[in-house]
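Tip: read the tokens left to right.
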């Protein structure tokens, strides 16, 4: 499951999710807002939401919007409880979100995810990963890397779906950071992740080691 603030945030984990889908995992895309502050176009929220639906279809992901206000997302009780309810129903193997040292909306996505996992009583049994959604902020020093080189053409196709908000230069800028992560782990392209806590409980009759899901990729 990915919990993001805006349509297009999921590009940060697109390669990893493509690989997970190939391994048979169900994918869930929770988008907190419709990105309606992305430009002065009054239809931008609808356009970006449609783009997110197309990308979710390419990823084979189930998409759910939570109708939070773009630019003013907060970890309030109502949205945290709504996410927690969905988490309790789905019981995902792993949850991905933005790391908190980024745009305020991305910080809120992390905080909402953190709180919702606790409310659903899943914090200690669910693998929980943070990734860099906007590389223009303080650069994440990843603990785990996923080699996404073999699905990079599909990642570019996904990024190109966001034509209402991204031009070719911006697409290349964001994808260059996957190349940078790749250099850090000796491959062409990679996605980097951090995990906030060690996982200490059992799952599938074995210890749930830190990063087990990603290491298996």
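Filled-in amino acids:
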């Amino acid at each position: 499951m990915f919990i993001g603030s805006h349509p297009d945030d999921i590009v940060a984990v697109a390669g990893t999710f493509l690989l997970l889908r190939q391994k048979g995992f169900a994918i869930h895309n929770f988008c907190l807002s419709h990105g309606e502050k992305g430009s002065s176009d009054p239809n931008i929220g609808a356009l970006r939401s449609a783009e997110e639906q197309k990308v979710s279809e390419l990823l084979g992901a189930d998409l759910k919007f939570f109708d939070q206000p773009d630019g003013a997302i907060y970890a309030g009780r109502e949205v945290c409880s709504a996410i927690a309810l969905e988490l309790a129903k789905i019981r995902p193997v792993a949850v991905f979100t933005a790391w908190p040292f980024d745009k305020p909306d991305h910080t809120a996505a992390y905080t909402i995810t953190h709180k919702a996992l606790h409310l659903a009583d899943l914090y200690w049994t669910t693998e929980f990963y943070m990734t860099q959604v906007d590389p223009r902020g303080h650069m994440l020093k990843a603990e785990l890397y996923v080699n996404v080189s073999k699905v990079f053409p599909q990642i570019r196709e996904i990024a190109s779906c966001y034509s209402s908000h991204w031009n070719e230069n911006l697409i290349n800028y964001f994808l260059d950071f996957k190349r940078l992560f790749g250099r850090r782990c000796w491959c062409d392209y990679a996605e980097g992740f951090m995990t906030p806590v060690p996982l200490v409980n059992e799952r599938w009759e074995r210890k749930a080691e830190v990063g087990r899901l990603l290491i298996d990729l």
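Helices lie at 14-22, 44-59, 77-90, 104-119, 152-160, 168-184, 212-216. DSSP finds seven helices and nine strands in the chain.
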